[in-house]
Design brief:
This protein has a single domain, classed as Pnp Oxidase, Chain A. 6% of the residues lie in helices and 56% in strands. It is built from 2 helices and 11 strands, in the order E-E-E-E-E-H-E-E-E-E-E-E-H. It is globular. By secondary structure, the protein is mostly beta strands. The strands form 2 sheets. Strands 1, 2, 5, 6, 7, 8, 9, 10 and 11 form a 9-stranded antiparallel β-sheet that branches. Strands 3-4 form a two-stranded antiparallel ribbon.
Length: 172
């Protein structure tokens, strides 16, 4: 029988190496969107989008909160660097049994938006925080799948150094 990935069972978030944060509704994880240019030239039928290898558009991690006004939230009120370590427990079905796989999304960046949410009697605030991602590492079952460091020209995918040739060409 094959393994069936079912769902994210639960998650915890640690900020700047502190104990876990409570009051997180959900996370919107970063998106890898390449910066592209349209290529249209002799010898090419029509046109196509060509990625500028290693150059990604702005990436954001969005944390959606049930509560946003609290002393433990001050790391997000500052527009300073923040480290967010998301520990995710995926649930999979394998040969008649459920098992859990540990995933991790580690982000370093700075807060670019903090929305305190809406104040309504008997309701959660439903605010959010957006973090501009400068560093991203994604692991699954203790294996690094991707590591991207915008300021140090690091882009590793499944152990392959995507930017090795670029760094060599730049004398880095």
């Amino acid at each position: 029988m094959s393994i069936i990935p079912e769902k994210l069972n639960d998650f915890r978030v640690y900020v700047n190496d502190s104990p876990e944060r409570k009051g997180i509704g959900d996370l919107q994880l970063p998106s890898l969107d390449a910066m592209t240019e349209t290529v249209s030239a002799a010898g090419v039928l029509g046109e196509y989008e060509s990625p500028n290898i290693g150059h990604l558009q702005s990436m954001k991690l969005t944390i959606n909160w049930t509560a946003t006004i609290d002393k433990t939230m001050t790391d997000f009120y500052k527009q300073e660097a923040v480290k967010v370590d998301c520990r995710l427990a995926d649930q999979k079905y394998d040969s008649g049994k459920h098992k859990f796989v540990a995933n991790r999304v580690l982000v370093q960046g700075h807060v670019v938006k903090h929305d305190f949410g809406k104040a309504a009697k008997g309701s959660p605030y439903e605010g959010s925080t957006e973090i501009e991602v400068l560093y991203l590492k994604i692991e699954s079952d203790k294996k690094v799948l991707i590591e991207y460091d915008r300021t140090n020209y690091i882009y590793m995918v499944d152990g392959v150094d995507v930017l090795a040739g670029l760094r060599t060409a730049l004398g880095m």
